[in-house]
Amino acid sequence: MTKAPPEGEPLSGFAIGVTAARRHEELAALLERRGARVVVAPAIRLVPLTDDAALLHVTKQCVTEPLDYVVVTTGIGLRAWLETADGWGLHDDLVEALRDVRILTRGPKARGAIRRAGLVEQWSPPSESCDEVLDHLLARDVAGRRVAVQLYGQPLPDFTGALRRAGAEVIEIPVYRWSRTEDSTPLRRLVGQAVAGTVDAIAFTSAPAVAATLAVAAEDGLEEALVESLRTHVVAACVGPVTAQTLVARGVPTVQPERARIGALVRAIISDLPRRRARRIRVRGHA
Fold first, then answer.
1. What's the whole-model pTM score?
2. How far out from the chain centre does Cα 125 lie?
3. Which one, of 175, 186, 189, 219, lies nearest residue 44 by Cα?
């Protein structure tokens, strides 16, 4: 009979892949502390756009042409924007320009970054969802309004397109972008392990990480096999609905925490993984 997991180690005996780029060490440590064997395989990397001409152009626009709304989607994005503006000698001008703008923040991290910059947000959704921010804006008639939207690593065509169709002038702020990791070997190994069934779960903390993992699998001819593994015997743990969207569209059941936080994701894995993946043996009427 196998021994019960040590007290405080509910993930003992389970192998979990971590695809996070930022804070992967923190996520791995939290899982290992609960007894898991962690396979670290970052899928993406964050690339700052400090020399990007487009960012300089739209920053000058925000400084010289009055805005009506600014949507701040991530704390790291706002900090990077202000730091980059500082390098161009535009930091103080940008902060001053934002003082009279109605600022909407997607969640508490973005809200905290706004306040640390000495600014005040007008509104933030309880769901931390871009969809709810969009609904809030559209309900206020944005026709003829100038709306700046801070992107978070990729375009937001549904969000910005809806605003433009409603008559708004949209200024997209491309502060950073996500890119594939330079060495995809660890991620390829993780995909192979998932297909072979030697990992029990894969944790995803961003939609670009999901896309990169599927892309690497496709390059090796394993995309359909990976998706089938995630549908059947490998748990896909996603930090939130935006991250899970692509997988859900392909029929993959996902585990998601109530709040999009790394700690909450770990708790969701602890709650779900033993129930779904633990092997139970009956001996003399006992499990």
1. 0.77
2. 17
3. 186
